[in-house]
Amino acid sequence: MPTVTVYGSSSPRTPAAYLAVAARVGRLVAGRGWTLVTGAGKEGCMGACADACLAAGGQVRGVILRRFAEQGLQHPGLAEVAVAEDMRTRKRLLAEGADAFIALPGGPGTWEELWEIAVQRQIGATSAPLVGVDVDGCYAGFRACLARAEADGLLYGPACELVAWVGDADAAVATALSPVTR
What CATH number is given to the structural domain containing 67? Predict the structure, then answer.
């Protein structure tokens, strides 16, 4: 069964528009029969995506830091959860075996995960699609940064080969399921 790793916020203060997109991604992933892999959080985009995927009959695996699990931040409905001791291990486990990646709105943790996969794509370590969901312009700064890096000759190819930017859940899942040619 194909696997999509979805990165996103874990904050209980995540805006409703972001949560709606996350939930739609979860439902769409379940509807396609893909396995969803998340950071195992119960709040924010992580929680909304997992809740919706599970409610639609999908399978969700999680990878959480031990300290977050001990603080009670783990999603209670996940049947399969790996507990990581550090962020490097957590990121490796989240990415391992993924057929595609989707970055929902989030904070520094999500940004780091997005950039790490973009780097992996740039150096050829993965060809799995990376889709950034730019809800209400939340990733406008990242898009501008990539465009500038491309214009300045700092990328090994076009920025669109690193991250496919879309504005909604349907486009995110459709793009993630369409292999990006490198």
Answer: 3.40.50.450
